[in-house]
Amino acid sequence: MNKILMATNNAGKLREAREILSPLGIEVVSLKELGIDCDPDENGVTFEENAGIKARAVQKEAARANGIKIAVFADDSGLCVDALGGRPGVHSARYAPDGEKCAKLLSEMEGVSESERGAKFVCSVVFVDENGEAASVSGECRGKIGYEERGTNGFGYDPVFEYGGRTLAEMSADEKNSISHRGAAMRALYRLLKERYGE
Ligand code: IMP
Q1: How far is the CA of 156 from the centre of ligand 1 (A)?
Q2: Of 38, 92, 113, 121, which shows the fewest CB atoms inside 10 Å?
Q3: Distance CA 75, CA 8 (A)
Q4: DSSP codes joined into one string, 110-127
């Protein structure tokens, strides 16, 4: 296998995947690069289910548009807050509009004590090979929800997610990638692909 399609057009995700997977000598291509427009309904109840829905839909669309069955991987991620019974979870993107997510979460967390503020980011990655066989890996990052927004880097819930005393929005991209759920999932994908396709 010398090429793999990542089911994203997100430049940051693509850059990170390329950096982590580059030692394998496998070229990572994006949807845009293959002229694929595919945004399936992610209506699964787990991150893994949603990543699988995306990976399979994208592989099908690539076959239809380009006549090739290419290996694909897709990721799905979100924030699970202990005190909210794991919410927003798979609904993290739809929880509130961007720019309002942190404020809404902080208001739901009002009155929650320090010891109950645990949370984790989760990222599932589903890989589907050229024959349609799937495998999944995942990564987690455990931290806690702070009391105010801090930092200007990152996106989504980063300004309220604390790890080691700082929020993810107070870290550089490299620092965040070294501890993040997505970084961990990408490194797990690297190990999976190395086992299968490495020399
Ligand atoms: P997606 O899997 O990239 O679509 O992410 C789903 C949603 O989870 C995003 O819209 C964000 O709100 C949230 N999310 C996922 N990863 C992160 C992260 O690293 N930082 C902050 N929010 C995240």
Answers
A1: 6
A2: 113
A3: 8
A4: TT--GGG-EEEEEEEEEE
77 alpha carbon – ligand 1 mean position (Å) = 6
Task: Kindly calculate the radius of gyration of the chain based on its CA atoms and give it in whole angstroms.
Answer: 17
Which helix H or strand E contains 144, and what residues bound it?
A: strand 134-145
pLDDT at 12: 87
How does strand 161-163 pair with strand 134-145?
antiparallel
Q: Ligand 1 pocket check: which of 53, 58, 92 to mutate, most ligand atoms within 8 Å of Cβ?
A: 92
Residues across the chain: 199
Q: Tell me whether residue 129 is one of the annotated catalytic residues.
A: no
> What are the structural domain ranges in the chain?
3-197
- CB atoms under 10 Å from CB of 34, counted, come to 16
Cβ–ligand 1 distance for 16 under 6 Å, the answer: no
Query: What's the Cα-to-Cα distance from 43 to each of 80, 102, 103, rounded to whole Å?
Result: 17, 23, 25
CATH code that applies to domain 3-197: 3.90.950.10
